[in-house]
Design a protein that fits this description.
Chains A, B: One of its GO terms (biological process) is regulation of DNA-templated transcription. 2 copies of one chain form a homodimer. Chain A is built from 9 helices and 8 strands. With 216 residues, chain A is α+β, with helices and mostly antiparallel strands. The relative contact order of chain A is 0.12. Chain A binds a DNA duplex (30 and 30 nucleotides) through helix 8.
DNA sequence: AAGGCGATGGCAGCTTCCTGCCATATACTC
DNA sequence: GAGTATATGGCAGGAAGCTGCCATCGCCTT
């Protein structure tokens, strides 16, 4: 069974009961928090949320863009406090996706289009496949608190350059030469980088950089 | 449009033309290489593959289980040599998935069932969503060569212990003391760990450890 | 012009790290 | 027992890394 609806209101009308019928699991991937802008939709979601403490696993997967505003962060933290698992994926997820109880999948159409289309299905292969892919992305994504906590130390150009030479395994002397600065300055910058990464040793700095995926 | 077929043969009969009509992109996620066991299916895939050099981007995403046998590895390397991008996801992907030209999605049903069911669709929202999720997993997955190369360096207890002390930022002397070995031995083990991580400096070792998620 | 400020470079001394060499110990094989 | 392999510890010398101090330079403000 596959149905396609246009817009939030029609979605709620046709598939709203699915939201309220969640018994075990509700997973949701989205680029940001702007979906469900319609009051009716939000209301339906809220009604569902009220049940969540009762054993329904709710997982919300978002892209970093969802953390843009301070308000968004507060909202997400609130959700997390209510038991919703929130993770941040490294890439945007333009097509919003919902899987309910591993039985129904709801996917939003191209966001570039005007009125948003939603496709709802209960085909086992589709639902299973989508859920499985979701789970893969979920596994690779990082916990909200961890993401906010690390606070992604913003490195300036000099620090990035230092990071690169360190990653190459050069000696300080060679690195300083390639960067065109003195040994003293280079080491000062290494010290600055380590401070930025809250590391006391170069090993710790490297580990931190690796964990944060600072490749450059 | 959504159709469901039972078994490889019927899939090829009903959707085989999709494989041969690839023009831009062919992506595929699977747990292992056992799919397409049927000769007809393999043949269809092979015909498709013959075109791939002509600009079709082929991405194959597998779980580590696909690397079980030496034969599998050879096969994958062969594919890679032919221009197929092969990556290994960290988790198994029980539901096999194919997306062709971002226009058609084919998803296999529960592998536990007897005859395998396949669902084929061209619903934009479904295809787009599946593709997007695939891309997310893909991004988090690791290149075949990198995976085989690094081969998840298996660290013994001694190396794990060293890793822990290094992560704590202790000096070698303190670390050696807490581990109850001499300074010389401790440093030998650090050198061994660095060799295992293919690192030339402690920074690189830390980075590698961070990237590999070696927390302990 | 004068002064403050921040980044740089040189120097020096210190700590830490790295490794080759040798001696010892333990275990395993023949 | 003799021989071999492997892990350990000590020592020493060298390489690399760290940082305090001071002088210099460019830039900005007053």
């Amino acid at each position: 069974m596959v149905i396609t609806v246009r817009g939030d209101i029609e979605l709620v009308a046709r598939a709203g009961h699915l939201f309220e019928g969640v018994t075990r699991e509700f997973v949701c991937a989205a680029r940001d928090l702007s979906t469900w802008a319609q009051p009716q939709a939000r209301e339906a979601v809220r009604r569902r949320m009220a049940w969540s403490p009762g054993g329904v696993g709710v997982r919300k997967l978002l892209s970093p863009a969802a953390l843009a505003g301070e308000e968004s962060r507060r909202h997400l933290r609130l959700l997390a406090a209510r038991g919703v698992q929130v993770r941040i994926a490294s890439r945007p997820l333009p097509y919003e996706t919902i899987v309910i109880d591993r039985s129904y999948a709801i996917m939003a159409g191209d966001p570039a289009a005007g009125v948003r289309e939603y496709t709802v299905t209960d085909e086992p292969a589709l639902v299973g496949g989508v859920w499985s892919l979701f789970d893969g992305v979920w596994e690779a994504a990082v916990e909200l608190e961890a993401y906010l906590g690390t606070d992604r130390p913003h490195l300036d150009d000099a620090e990035r350059a230092v990071l690169r030479t360190l990653s190459l395994g050069r000696t300080d002397e060679a690195a300083a030469r390639t960067l065109g600065v003195s040994l003293r300055t280079y080491r000062r910058r290494v010290a600055a980088l380590m401070a930025a990464l809250e590391a006391e040793t170069r090993f710790q700095a490297g580990k931190r950089a690796g964990e944060l995926g600072l490749t450059s």
